[in-house]
Amino acid sequence: MPPSADDAKRAGREALSGLRGTLAQRIAGLLRRDTELLSEMVELGLVRREWLEDPAREQMSTATPMEVVERWLERSVEQRPSLLGKLGLSAIQQLSASSDSDEAAGVPTRLAVAFTDLEGFTAYTAQEGDEAASELLAVHYRQVGPVVRSRGGHINKRLGDGLLLTFPSAEAGVLACLELVEGEPEPLRLRAGVHFGDVVAAGDEIVGHTVNVAARVAESAKGGEVVVTEEVLDECADLKSVRFSRSRSKTFKGVGEKVKVARAARASSG
After folding, report:
1. CA pair distance 250, 87, nearest whole angstrom
2. Among the listed residues 175, 260, 168, the one whose alpha carbon sits nearest the alpha carbon of residue 226
């Protein structure tokens, strides 16, 4: 009995899918040989880390052209601070601003919000001087940018030695913060707090209860720790590469309800 039209179409789709999977794996293999190029592509959003882990199944990139431009501008300004002076801050902001009028008006959206800072920075400044402290921060900022962007995140504000970061998912926020802790600038230790929930975002400005909770959670962390809320734990239930401590309830100043928090750490490979 000859195959039906549906069978032929199904076989064609399967063959095409197999061909695409093979091609994706070949491209991923070539990229892995050039680590510098691969790092740049991940940072700009042209390649997803998840795709590198499973090229045959995962989507290569989910970043929009505008998001790629935004990441490129941020990266360029970090690497060449003189560029900011030449173009002007307003020009950079206009170029990197989304054309979505709803976003500009401030529409509620769900994001992971993280705060980080450097434990002991004030004492370090008093002991080593302003010049040494400024240089340490400059090095720190250059290290932070690529990590945040490679996870699809955004640096919303620099708050002295601290940062306000946003990520499209709780998993991305946790993984980025763990990576930042691992690359903390010696002799200081970085600490971070992550919360997930609704915020009102308009450009780089984000407001809402989620932001306030994330700030308080970060304040409760010690150097070298990433502390997350129960909402983050729920979102990261399938994240096998991270282990979380048992959650406990804490009361934070300015936050009405008790907040359940836990510490995040890399899961042991063994």
Report:
1. 46
2. 175
| CATH 3.40.50.300 describes domain 105-266 | no
Residues 173 and 231: beta-carbon distance below 8 Å: no
84-104 confidence digits (pLDDT tens): 555 554 555 555 555 444 445
- Closest by Cα among 185, 190, 234, 232 to 213: 232
Question: Cα(155)–Cα(162) distance, rounded to whole angstroms?
Answer: 11
Separation between Cα atoms, residue 176 and residue 179, nearest integer Å? 5
Identify whether 187 is preceded by a cis peptide bond (ω within 30 of 0): yes
Work out the end-to-end distance of the chain between its first and last CA atoms, rounded to an integer number of angstroms: 54
pTM of the model: 0.78
Percent of the chain clearing pLDDT 70 (strictly above): 81
What are the extents of the domains in the chain?
5-53, 64-97, 105-266
